[in-house]
Amino acid sequence: MKDVKCECGHVNPHGTVLCEACGKVLDEQEANKSKLLDMRYEGSARRSQTYNKTVIDKIWNFFSSVKVGVWLIVITLIASILGTIFPQEMYINLPPEVYYEQEHGWVGKLYYQLGFHDLYSSWWYLLLIAMIGISLVICSLDRVVPLYKALKAQRVTRNEGFLKRQRLFSASSNISEHDIEKIKDHLKLKRYHIREENGDLLAEKGRFSRWGPYVNHVGLIIFLIGGMLRFIPGMYVYENLWVKEGETALIPETDGKYYLKNKEFILEHYDKEKDRTFEQAIDRAGDVVKNYQSNVVLYKEKGESLPGEKPDLQKIKEYKVKVNLPLKFEGYSVYQSSYRSELVAMTFSLVKKDSSQSFGDITIDLKNPKKEYNLGNGYSVKIINYFPDFEFDDNGEPITKSRVPNNPAFVFRMISPEKPEGETSFVAIQQTIEPPGENAYKMAFKGIDTQEVSGFTISKDSTLWVIILGGIIFMIGVIQGSYWNHRRIWVQRKNGQIWIAAHTNKNWYGLKRELEFVLADTKLTFPKDQLQGEHEEKEEA
Amino acid sequence: MVEISGNLLFIAFILYLIATLFFGGSIKAKKDINKKKETNSWGKIAVCLTIVGFISQLGYFITRWIAAGHAPVSNMFEFTTFFGMALVGAFIVIYFIYRSTLLGLFTMPVAILVIAYASMFPREITPLIPALQSYWLNIHVTTAAIGEAILAISFAAGLIYLVKAIDQTKSNKQTFWLETVMFSLVTVLGFVVITTVFSIVGYEEKFTWVDKHDQEAVMEYTMPAITGPNEGELLTKDGFKPLVEMPAYINAKKLNTVIWSFLGGLVLYGLIRLVIRKRISAALKPLVKNIKLDLVDEISYRSVLIGFPVFTLGALIFAMIWAQIAWSRFWGWDPKEVWALITWLFYAAFMHLRLSRGWHGEKSAWLAVIGFVIIMFNLVAVNLVIAGLHSYAGS
């Protein structure tokens, strides 16, 4: 493929539409297209528009197309909408195969079957994001390199056809040098960079805004790479940790080095007596939580301990972990993420049914219940069976789901002087089942002891710096491209006249206002907006 | 303090209404007086009223902030009101760039509707749940709302473009969809009117019903039930008997409100049509006679360019920073997060279509309209229907 030499002497790469130096139309097709020049990418030679032979060309051309890029964005957008119809898997607290059908009927079932319950980590969603990433890279490279070259190679003196076919253009005769000087002063006041050659003038400003899109694309690519780094082992830690009040637990993923003691869990509600401002809202909506807080102590292990040995702990710091105030150390963050109350003990009273007389209380440690509780005077209670997390199985037999005392149930044998062999009673929360034949005694529920358990999230995200860097670069690029404009004004001598042409990549209204200032108090004809001319012709027709 | 705050908001609302009338006057008066670019006295009064209204609303915002101890952007009423204020603020800024009073005539009614809509939600000062107790509440929510408001200006400009550009002498797809946009705006008014009427007469009826977990519960309606709850039993004597019963996994009360708003919108729209005897968009056409199409096109695009970085910063970047602090992860695919991403993707596509594929003029105006629909969906439907972690905004 040969380079193209323009009549101005500049050698352009193959595929160039407008000469990089003088702007002459090199592509015959473009020459006859329309009244105005297509100034996108300065008419530079883009790889994608020039080669289309090999497989690499074809792939390159596919991903460098903005049309493809926009389709990828639109498909991702629609896919993302689908994922918000019902809650995603991570926000539900039932097995998905149960949840979706139960909550949303057959539509929910279909939603689950199509895999939309975990849409954002599905292979095809990730593929879409990856393709957007590739498109970002190729699109940018295809444009930024030739654009940079073209803008660098531009000369002051421009081809006549180039000037005439700019959107803003005028030709004025009989202009004094004095007026030209005035224009120059005005341009300087508006902070234009002025270059002169053979009495022709090019005033330019804000070229750096042309790089905005490419800078923000770089930012996005860094951001996406940051997202991918998470899959490298060790870069990303995210664990839950439950610690009971008063207990100390090893913090996971810290190589057994750090321990966390939960001194106290605090749950506070707004008090409408104290916070008068919120009285009405609390009356309407009920109690509102004011604070979730765990007072913790962070320990580090001194030296190494053998497995099973009690570790030798050194206190690092005390901290009050609240929502929005995580504890931070060595890149780790400890978040207050939830809490629960655990039953630790239940108290019952042995009561004679007809007289309601009590013969003593028993307090059962739910972790470690005793076999027998002696109440004296011939009264005692035996625990024959204990179900910490009770439910009935399919055959109607009582079973326990786990060893955690979420829903304790007991089979008691109540021994009294009248019934020395004892009476049996099955007691669960708010439920008593007695064997046939009436019991004379019952176990009356008196109270519970609970213990608060703080739920922490332990996270360490070494990818954050990449993400932050990507975000900052993106913002810089997007601001650079949006809040500045690349404006050029050509003032040139052609055929004894003064020709003025102007171009901006956006915000034509602003450019026109600036031209009004620049041309004020001179005899030059104000450039005509040739695009508006076209519009008006259309509207009138 | 709370009372002063409420009064300031009311004053702002009234001023916005009067300003809209003056904006209308400035368009009517323009053609008689001169063809110069200068704003006529009607327009100047309109802009002054808008600014005074904005200052008054700013007063509401500040006094309420003092009263509550946190920025008043923490529930549906507060956020939507703030969005309305940001819309007026964004208009004032764009007005001083382009000096178009016509833009005011289209933006102010939207802002008025937004504020009126906001007032239909509980207005008490609500306490902050722990997750919201952070200075990022002020930063993230306000920046996101300002970004959305600037993007909404592009909708107003796009609407002007479409009203002017679409030929109303025949009916086709364009006229239909443009009229649908007008109808939707009327429906919001319908919601406001219906809610206000039933709240003034104090309408109430109670049902016992069975929810999807087979639990019996009580549901209180503030409008006559067209759609009743699952296995609902009317408790209120002389209450309106539901016409249709809904299955348990559909929120019958919300659906009922939607149906009433739609009916209200239909009646209002019918009345308007009876009076003006043509499409609303056709009736608006004479107002836009003097504006140049490529100027409105540019205003629309410019608003997107100004709004997009602000939106990205507020709704994505600040949001991620706060999410990392409060929820231990910067991104969690919560519906509100996803809809912010969807809005962002949409405007990204918009700008690419415009820059590279030459979608100027009418196509670009339609895109601006769709963008606003997405923003409104994120504000209304995501908060009230889809919910998720951001559901505290719903109440």
From TrEMBL, chain A:
GO terms for cellular component: membrane. GO terms for biological process: cytochrome complex assembly. Its main location: membrane. It comes from the Bacteria. Keywords: Cytochrome c-type biogenesis, Membrane, Transmembrane, Transmembrane helix. The keyword Membrane applies. It is found in: Membrane. It is a multi-pass membrane protein. Residues 66-516 form the ResB-like domain. It holds the Pfam family ResB. The chain crosses the membrane at residues 68-86, 123-145, 214-238, 464-484. Signal peptide: none annotated. This is Cytochrome C biogenesis protein. It comes from Neobacillus thermocopriae.
Automatic annotation (TrEMBL), chain B:
It is a multi-pass membrane protein. It is found in: Membrane. Coiled coil: none annotated. One of its GO terms (cellular component) is plasma membrane. Keywords: Cytochrome c-type biogenesis, Membrane, Transmembrane, Transmembrane helix. GO terms for molecular function: heme binding. GO terms for biological process: cytochrome complex assembly. The keyword Transmembrane applies. Residues 74-195, 262-390 form the Cytochrome c assembly protein domain. InterPro entries: Cyt_c_assembly (IPR002541), Cyt_c_biogenesis_CcsA (IPR017562), Cyt_c_biogenesis_CcsA/CcmC (IPR045062). The keyword Ribonucleoprotein does not apply. It holds the Pfam family Cytochrom_C_asm. The chain crosses the membrane at residues 6-24, 45-67, 79-98, 103-121, 141-163, 175-201, 258-276, 304-326, 338-355, 367-389. PANTHER family: CYTOCHROME B_B6 PROTEIN-RELATED (PTHR30071:SF1), HEME EXPORTER PROTEIN C (PTHR30071). This is C-type cytochrome biogenesis protein CcsB.
